[in-house]
Amino acid sequence: MKPTPETTTNSTQRARAIIMRAVEPQDHIAHALIESQGVEKTAHILSGREKLTSHLTEELIGDTTLEPEQFFKQLTDRIERCGRKLSTYNPDHELHFAPKIGAWLCTPEDDDWPQSLNDFGYATPFALWGRGDRNRLNELKEARSLAVVGSRDISAYGRSATQHLAGELAQAGLTIVSGGAFGIDAVAHTSALATGTSQLPTVALMAGGLDSLYPKHNENLLHQVIEQGLILSEVPMGLAPTRWRFLQRNRLIAGLSRGTIIVEARWRSGALNTANHTLELGRTVYAVPGSIFSPSSEGCHRLLKDGLATVLTNAQDLIQEMTQSLPVQSSAFPEANLGDATDTLDSTERFVWDALPVRRTMSIEELSSTTSLPARTLMVTLSKLHAHSLASQDTATLQWKKKIPARTGTA
């Protein structure tokens, strides 16, 4: 009997889940097996349910300098290790547990698979676990996404620069991709959530299983990303982040984005690793210059000095560059003519209006943390914005949100 689309999808998901559990991301042998034998047979081989043959070994040996006997032994030993790892693993348990935490598995065979990840070849993820409304995957387009990454040890300058860049890019309808970590990552996600106007304001890539959000301190932020955006990981449930997995994760941040913005980065940092992946994909790295005395800007200055990055000091320049060649994208909010309504705002009023969220309300304390402005200044500014019909307050919670002006006609 010919399998139905549902049973085909389920069997593919099961096979992909087995492969993800058996090997680490970017495992070339597993990719070679998939290419020559298909996904389900590869899962059977790695789990020991199907034996290797000499013919298969010849197909996989490729350009290696090893003798066939040596290669066969190494491959056999490796598959034995995978078999031991999988001896107590049941993919059905993981696939049935996932919906309980709102998680789902997306495979390269699915229609909503992010096609830009296929540019990695043998480094393409075997599959992606995700949390958030899966329909938003259809909004995850490389052409409309920008990575914003940088130092965990963020400076006041780095915070302001990230709020400006990520906030204005998200307000222009672009998706901000980052890693959910402390520092630049967290500010980039927060700014995108506060000002984003697209159906997918931000995406966070994790280095561990999505059943436990990391870092724990950012758990509230990551839950907000789940509510309004997406979090993704190529790591199975229950596995903790490791240094190696963070480095592997960085290539996905680059792969899902048209370009990568480095706000602050030390001489040796994960952000520079993401920049390298971006360059390998033939995409643009943008670096924000900082103080010549700041160790947090040494990595950015190094990229600029070596001609590997384009200097970025203004979000509007990048928005113009990004949007000139982009097709029209659906917005989460009605189109608005903001010129007349916001041109009269002073710098503080505009800064607070930019920081206000559009989908949810924000408390004075949260807004103060985002803008670094004192509560008294915020209360006065919000009152002025309310008078201009640019902000509204929930009378029950006393929290605030952005109000988009109605579109005005032209004479």
Q: What's the structural blueprint in terms of helices and strands?
A:
Layout lengths: L4 H18 L5 H10 L1 H8 L7 H8 L6 H19 L4 H7 L5 E4 L21 E4 L13 E5 L6 H16 L3 E4 L5 H12 L6 E4 L13 H10 L1 E4 L9 H13 L3 E4 L7 H11 L3 E4 L10 H8 L4 E2 L3 H9 L15 H4 L4 H9 L8 H8 L3 H13 L3 E4 L4 E4 L9
Parallel strand pairs: 3-4, 3-7, 4-5, 5-6, 7-8, 8-9
Antiparallel strand pairs: 1-2, 2-6, 10-11
Helix pairs in contact: 1-3, 1-6, 2-3, 4-5, 7-8, 7-13, 8-9, 10-11, 15-17
How does this model look, in words?
With 411 residues, the chain is of the alpha/beta class. The chain has 3 domains: 5-89; 100-323, Rossmann fold; 339-402, Arc Repressor Mutant, subunit A (Orthogonal Bundle), CATH 1.10.10.10. The chain contains 17 helices and 11 strands. The strands form 2 sheets. It has a 9-stranded mixed β-sheet, with helices on both faces.
Q: How would a textbook summarize the main sheet?
A: 9 strands, mixed
Helical fraction: 40-55%
Taken together, the total number of domains comes to 3
Largest sheet strand order: 1-2-6-5-4-3-7-8-9
CATH-defined architecture of the largest domain: 3-Layer(aba) Sandwich
- Report how far the terminal alpha carbons are from each other: 67 Å
